Amino acid sequence: MDLQIGVWLAYIAARQGRWSDSELLYSTVLETRKRLLGEEHPDTLSSMSNLARSYSNQGRWSEAEELDVKVFETRKRLLGEDHPATLSGMSNLACTYSHQGRWSDAQELRVAVLEARKRLLGEEHPDTLLSMNNLASTYSNQGQWSDAAALRVAVFEASKRLLGEEHPATLSSMSNLARSYSNQGRWSDAEELDVKVFETIKQLLGAEHPDTLLSMSNLAGTYNDQGQWTDAAALRVAVLETSKRLLGEEHPDTLNSMSNLAGTYSDQGRWSDAEELEVAVLEARKRLLGEEHPDTLLSMSNLARSYSNQGRWSDAQELRVAVLEARKRLLGEEHPDTLLSMNNLASTYSNQGQWSDAAALRVAVFEASKRLLGEEHPATLSSMSNLARSYSNQGRWSDAEELDVKVFETIKQLLGAEHPDTLLSMSNLAGTYNDQGQWTDAAALRVAVLETSKRLLGEEHPDTLNSMSNLAGTYSDQGRWSDAEELEVAVLEARKRLLGEEHPDTLLSMNNLAHSYSDQGQWKDAEELHIKVLEARKRLLGEDHPATLSSMSNLARSYSDQGQWSNAEELEVAVLEARKRLLGEEHPDTLLSMNNLAHSYSDQGQWKDAEELHIKVLEARKRLLGEEHPATLTSMNNLASTYHHQGQWSDAGELQIRVLEARKRLLGEEHPETLLSMNNLAHSYSDQGQWKDAEELHIKVLEARKRLLGEEHPATLTSMNNLASTYHHQGQWSDAEELRVTVLEARKRLLGEEHPDTLLSMNNLACAYNDQGRWSEAEGLNITVLESKKRLLGEEHPHTLKSMNNLAHVFEQQARYSEAEALRRAVKQIKHKKTALQISPSPPHLPSKPPLLLMIEKMKLSSLDPVLEDVD
């Protein structure tokens, strides 16, 4: 065979992605040249370098390195340090180091090559410009984006001046500069360049030239970064169809296009479409490249992502473990791709509630990144942020905050206050503040993030809408429910218009708005949205998808709020059985479902059933999470509530003291959950007639909430109401009345005349009037409450029936026995008609007391939806 023809055939095979054929040809040429020309002939060394490239294409980087080192050392000895062939060999070796994640070694070589070429060839020689571009790539790999951009601007300007606007090298440098702008979050600048490159190449080379397709793919990536997923998908479909037709179904470029399109489908929530493409790519790469080629492993990782999006976490875990093991063996424990696989596996562990396993992996990734890349490398900062999320899952919020603050400060210093990564780190820190009840700090950060996102990205960019939704969540925590609703409505409308009615993000917004409605007592509106979300998720994701199960649980809470307890129980049982089957008995979501079902039992007065479940959840959480994990303390509190309802007040008090002491020590005296525990302990004291002890705690909680949350925060008003109840029990009726009037007026003004909390305040004030013998005033309030409940909840709702009993009691106090008897007979008839519904007993002359079930602790968020699932 003519050796030059062999080289050309090998080159063509490589261009077609036939790397094993290319390797065979290059090996044949190399062996022939060795035999004919000797080991160190220039042509022999060129063949060695070609074979090294072939190894690189197959991910066999250690073999490539061995040849590249040999070529470089030989050329240096024979030709000298500054010979063009030596510099080329140095550049090739740097490329191999980059593939191995040895970026500092690559940088050292590329700086040397650049300096030599500048000195020998001049600042603007094409080889010098190529070296500048290569060094820029190394800077990018190390997160030195401003350094990379500076070099790429210089290359672009020189190419434009020397070669003209439309020279391939100029267009290539323009595209590279666009990548740098993308890394810096300057997406509009990147888009402007990408559009120009695409239009120019299409005009010069035609719509179907490989370079045109590459530029289309780059532009699609920029659209993706900006959340323009429809535009991105249209381009990627076009690229894929053209690649299939011109290059064949299994050409590497076709497979890359397929994988890119799958990524865009994922962003659009088209997870089954994404999975179908990823499976096709993986099967083709396995067959063509082998099980352990880097591209095959990348496809396995991408398919694992598709499985995760669909809640198929065990399938995702199986793939991610396989990828990690292969990368460890092939690349080493600390290669960047190995560390990335460890992080991906940690995410899968987190999804399955294996938080200690996730944290262990993330600590390892963080330590390795810090040692190998330095404290301020983007990958190190990313791993630090991921570790903070693991700490949050474990309830280690101060540790999470420390890391989040460090990440935020570092990124702000390196990239500027308005870089997308800076905004993301601000959002993460805000979330950690939220977890610790530092809502004012969280809101301040989230407002800043939202304003910046609006200005830089536009009102409807996905990141802007996410920021809006996050701020709405914080407003909810602050009791600013109308503000939260306004934001959620805006997000929902934008997502409907941009993404469609049934995109996962649209459904999530619907779910969040339902949560806002629930907070404001608009339970029918909440129910309507929850049903809509549930039906869509069932149809799109399947009955057993985690998001579908979350929707079922959310709808159950809506039913509970409306007193439809048997409906709620039916849903909670279904969710629990599904989670047991899919996730196992002790997965956090399974325990959450058990807890929710216990609350359904409590709502129906099935205290023993509730107690049994709460004990089971508590024991599991103690064993899995530790005695003092926030979820364990939540379970302890819930069990105490069940004891309280069964009159086991000393048992309830003992648990409440333990929870309070733990929260004081772990969270501080004034954390919202500590104050909540104080409130609950005060109720335990009240149950046991220790009114003074209860009063002391209620005053302490009220003062703290006034100072921390403001006079009119819902939690502050609840504390006022609870203190009034304590005064009432001690016969301090005027003090109780004064507080109750204050609470009622505030709730009327803030929540409206017919909000459930407003009606509860009216009911409580009526009780105060009743005890003072002011029966006509008590009657007026009770009638108002009853009429509102009839209209809002229906004649047969348990709360309506309680109000009827309360009014009957007032009639009896005024010797209006026939009217009282008519009301009690009506209540009895309704109860007989609804024998399936069990209503928790309460004295007819008292309103629903506001202890543990009025001021319920902050419910735990579902892993998918920021809607309450776990009562605490």
In short:
InterPro entries: NLR-like (IPR053137), TPR-like_helical_dom_sf (IPR011990), TPR_rpt (IPR019734). With 872 residues, the chain is an all-alpha fold. 80% of the residues lie in helices and 1% in strands.
Features:
872 residues, mainly alpha, Serine Threonine Protein Phosphatase 5, Tetratricopeptide repeat, two-stranded antiparallel sheet, 2 strands, 1% strand, elongated, disordered C terminus, Kinesin light chain
Task: Find the CATH superfamily of the domain at 396-478.
Answer: Tetratricopeptide repeat domain
* CATH hierarchy: architecture of the domain at 396-478: Alpha Horseshoe
Q: What is the overall silhouette?
A: elongated
The low-confidence parts are 835-872
List the quaternary state of the chains: single chain
Tell me the strand percentage band. under 5%
Distance between the termini: 79 Å
Structural class: mainly alpha
Give the C-level CATH assignment of the domain at 396-478.
Mainly Alpha
Major beta sheet, strand line-up? 1-2
Mean pLDDT: 88
Helix share of residues? over 70%
Count the beta strands: 2
InterPro entries: NLR-like, TPR-like_helical_dom_sf, TPR_rpt
Pfam families: TPR_10, TPR_12
Protein name: Kinesin light chain
3D architecture notes:
InterPro entries: NLR-like (IPR053137), TPR-like_helical_dom_sf (IPR011990), TPR_rpt (IPR019734). This is Kinesin light chain. With 872 residues, the chain is mainly α. It has a domain at 396-478: Alpha Horseshoe (Serine Threonine Protein Phosphatase 5, Tetratricopeptide repeat). Helix content is 80%, strand content 1%. The protein contains 40 helices and 2 strands. Strands 1-2 form a two-stranded antiparallel sheet. α4 runs antiparallel to α5. The longest helix has 19 residues, at 19-37. The chain is elongated, with a radius of gyration of 33 Å. The N and C termini lie far apart (79 Å).
